[in-house]
Amino acid sequence: MNEKLKKLYEDLNRAETIEEVKKIGEAIEAEKMREKLIAEKQAALDALKGEEGNAGKKSEEPRTLGEFAAKNLDLSAMRAGASKSAGTGYGFKAATDPHTSTPMQVVDQRVIDTTLRSLDIRNLFGAETISGTSIKYFVLGATEGAPATVAENAAKPQFHVPYASKDASLQKIAGWYYETDELLEDNAFLASSIDNRGLFELDNAVEGYLMTTLGGTSGILAPTVTATTVTADDLFKAAMSVKSASQYDADAIVINPVDYQVLRLAKDGNQQYYGGGYFTPAYTGAGAPQLIPGLWGMNTVVSASTTAGTAYVGAFRAGGSVITKAGEGVRVEVVTGDHDDRTHNRVTVIVEERLLLAVRVPSAFAKVVKAS
Predict the structure, then answer these.
(1) Is residue 298 helix, strand or coil?
(2) How many domains does one find in the chain?
(3) Among 86-90, 222-226, 331-335, which is the least confidently predicted range?
(4) Which terminus of the chain has a lower count of CB atoms within 10 Å, N or C?
């Protein structure tokens, strides 16, 4: 407490009228605000000095997005009441809430990814970037006609690839969760929380969005299924329907764990597992057993992102693309001052990403649904 503030409190104790109390009280609040602004300004200057002092020093590069966010926290600024954000560097949450302290932001243009993340479904698709926030792309239909042999002086046959344009905008997938502010004292623990909790849940949401979007796309194939379970025969027939309709070879299957379990534990008349036993592969007696062997030689992703009784077979890389904004990646913010974080000794961790799925060749995918 500075001398001016001390004197104001002394004057408040000597005040004899309501008007004097009110006037001195307003002066005290103004002085407190001035002190707070000075502290935040000093914290910002200290942070800048620290960055300048370390400019010539070689520091260890963060290995994950969580480490990046944790290492960029300025604890002195946060303790002074300022919000602190760290991320992949294209923008941050605006401090529009009157109960939110003035944000102190660190922006870094590097996109830090993490080897801990497993985006099995996302990695099946192609990947593209756009400079804007929306795109017009073309959806290809079945080819009409085809080139053929032509006799001398005969007319050449016409063929045509129909297409329809589609407008789509980047979709923001985001969420937040609370974490104890004790993590601020342990960067390794905070990085682990972001990587293994925040980004894990965000990844699940992204994969769910991709499968929901694919499943709702008009024009994807719907082979007739008569069995009440998803069978290996149905999946093979779906791959052949993709080949017939699009001329692409199916490269992957996405199947629910419940349906995969039925296939994985299936046995022949000799009680040997078709996919190999828990000690050795069936019949060969050599090599190591696999927990999740691929079906029909295709990349097989077992995920709850598709519901039980529904599987997808397709030429994922050729038929669709995950589109993101150039220069952007996953964004992470670690914020104090929102809601009642300060009184509950906690921080708010925000994770988000903007992307969209463009299914350019719907006939390159088949949705296999068990019979009811």
Answers:
(1) coil
(2) 2
(3) 86-90
(4) C
Residue 7's domain comprises 1-59
| Domain stop point among 19, 37, 59 | 59
The phi-psi region of residue 81 (left if phi > 0; otherwise alpha if psi is between -120 and 50; otherwise beta) is left
Q: Is residue 80 part of a domain?
A: no
- Written as six digits, the tokens of 217 are 């796309």
Residues 160 and 25 in one domain: no
Give the residue among 341, 343, 325, 322 at the shortest CA–CA distance from 333. Answer: 341
Q: Do 189 and 53 share a domain, yes or no?
A: no
| Distance between start and end Cα atoms, the chain | 74
pLDDT in tens, 232-266: 999 999 999 999 999 999 999 999 999 999 999 99
Q: With a cut of 60, say whether residue 345 has pLDDT above it.
A: yes
pLDDT computed for residue 234 by the predictor: 96
- Taking only Cα atoms into account, the Rg of the chain, rounded to an integer number of angstroms, comes to 30
For the segment 302-323, the average pLDDT, to the nearest whole number, is 94
Residues 61, 178 contacting (CB under 8 angstroms) = no
Phi and psi based region of residue 87 (left: phi greater than 0; alpha: psi -120 to 50; beta: remaining): beta
Same domain, 23 and 156: no
* Beta-bridge mates of residue 3: none
pTM of the entire predicted model: 0.67
Question: Do residue 341 and residue 193 come from a single domain?
Answer: yes
Helix axes 18-53, 3-14, angle to 10 degrees: 170
